[in-house]
Write a structure and sequence with these properties.
Layout (H helix, E strand, L loop, with lengths): L2 H18 L1 E3 L4 E3 L20 H7 L3 E5 L3 H5 L21 H9 L5 E7 L29 H12 L2 E6 L12 H16 L7 E3 L6 E3 L6 E3 L9 H11 L4 E3 L6 E2 L14 E2 L18 E2 L2 E6 L16 H11 L4 E6 L10 H18 L8 E4 L25 E2 L7 E13 L1 E6 L7 E9 L6 E3 L12 E4 L12 E13 L4 E7 L1
Parallel strand pairs: 3-4, 3-14, 4-5, 5-6, 6-9, 10-13, 13-14
Antiparallel strand pairs: 1-2, 7-8, 11-12, 15-17, 16-23, 17-22, 18-21, 18-23, 19-20, 19-22
This protein binds beta-L-fucopyranose and calcium ion.
Calcium ion binds next to β23.
Length: 509
Amino acid sequence: MNNRFLHGVLTALALTASATGFAQTNTVMTLQTQNVPNTENEPRPVFPVPTDRQWKWQQTEFYAFFHYGMNTYTNKEWGKGDENVNIFNPTEKPDPKQWLEVVKEAGMKGGIAVVKHHDGFCLWPTTTTDHNISRSSSPNAQGVNIADLFAKAAQELKMKYGFYVSPWDRNSGLYGTDKYVKDVFLKQCAELAQYGSDQFEMWFDGANGGDGYYGGKNKVINIDRATYYDVPNLRDSIHKLSPNIILWGVGGEARWIGNEDGWAGETNWCNENRGTAPERNGMYGTENGWFWLPGESDAKFTDQGWFWHPGCEPMTAERTFQMYLETVGRNATLILNCPPDRSGKIPQNQARRLKEFGTMLKNRLSNNLAKTAAVEATSTRANGQTRTYAAGNLIDENADTYWAAEDEVKDVTLTFKWNNSQTVRYVTLQEYVRLGQRVKSFSIEYTTDGSTWKPLASKVKLTTIGYKRIIPLNGSTSNSYGDGFDAKGIRIHIKDAKACPVLSEIAIY
Ligand code: FUL
Ligand code: CA
C-alpha cells in the first residue's frame, strides 16, 4: 500500500473517530457507534497510537546491547568476511548469563545480543551457512550456541531479550541476489525467532552493502536497502513466530534516534511519517506524523567502538546518568552497548561501573515523594462505569490507570502538596500513550511557603512528554543532582495539548 493511500485511510479513520467516539479497553481498541454509549467515559484517542507490541516494547525503557563475535578476536569493528572460523577462540566458555546479570545490576530490563555482524559469522549453529560457531575448532566454542544460552538466561532472569542479525553479509557468496534474502537472511531471522516466542526486538542495522569478501569475489556489492530485504514479508513472518518482536530500523516499528551519542530531542514525538527515511527526524519525531514510530537511542558504554578492544574503558556513572536523562528521560528507549571481552564475559571494569551506575539510579530515582503528597487537578473527567480518572491514578504506580481532564480542556494544573518541606530534584511525567501522544507545552513550579510559586527547570524545553519525560529541576542534565530545592509543593501546568491531557504517572524525587 502506498503512503499517500494509507495516509488517506488514516485521515478518514481519524475523522470517523472524532465523529463517533472510540473506546479503549485494556487490550483492544473498539470503534463505537453513536448507538453504543461510552460507558467508561474514556477520552477519545489521538491517532496514531501504539500497537500492543510497541506499547510493551516502550515499557522496556533501558536495555543492553552486546557486541560480541569475530571482531572481538580480530580487534576490528567491521570484519571483511574472510576471517577463518578458528580465529573465533574464546579464552573461557562464553557466558551470556553473566552479561545479563551484570546489566541487571545497572537497572536494565533486558538486552539484545549481536549474533551476526557484517562479517557474516553466526554465533548459533545455523543451517544457512558454514561460517558459524559450530565450525570453529576452538575448545571453548565447541557445543556453544550463544543465541540459545542468551534466550534461556534472559528467561531465567525474567529479562527481555532479542537478537541483532546483520542483513549485510560480507562473507556470503550469495549477497546481492534474491537467493541470499530468501535462503540465508530470512531463514536466519526465522531460526532466531524460534529461540523464544517472547522476544521483544530484532535489530537490523542500516549499514548495508559495500566491499567485502563475498565468497571470494572480493568486490563491491550495492543493494537498495528499501526494497532488497523484502521487509513487509519479513515483518509478517517474524510476527507469526514471535508476536512481540519489534523490528528495528527501515520498515520497522521503532526508529533510530538519529545519532549514536545517546541523546534525544527535548521535544520528541513518537509520531513519524514512515516511508520517507524513518530517521530523518530521528531526534524529534514529527508532531503530526501519521505512524507510531517511537525512538530508540543506541549508544556505547565503552570508549573504543561497539566491540571490545584491548584497554577499552567504560564511561563514568555520572555521564551514564546524563545519557539516561537525555534518552529515557526524553521519550526514547536507551540501548547501551556493553561488549564482552575475549573470555566471553563482561570484564570487571565495565561490571563495576554498571553496578555503581545502578546504585546511582536507585538513589536518585526511586524514592517517589509524589506518593506522600496531596494531589489535586483543576479538571478531572467524570467516572465511567468501572474506571475513574482521579489525580490519585497518577501516583498508584500502575501504568494502566490514568488521570484525564474533561474533553476540550487543554490548559490544566496538577498540584502536589506536602505538610513538611521536601528536597526535590527531579520530576518524571508519563502520558498514557495508548491514547496517543498529546501534550505540547507545560511548566513546573514550586512553593516554599505553600502559596507563592516560582518556576523550575526554566532552561529546559518543557514541550512534549510522551511515554516518559524526566526533568532535572535545576535544568542541567550533566550536573543534575546538586543541592535540590526545598519545596512544600510542586505544580505542573499543562498549557497546551492536542486534546485533553491523559497522564498515567507523575513521580517527584
Ligand atoms: C551500525 C553498525 O555498522 C555498527 O558496527 C554497530 O553494529 C551499530 C550498532 O550499528 O550500523
Ligand atoms: Ca497510574
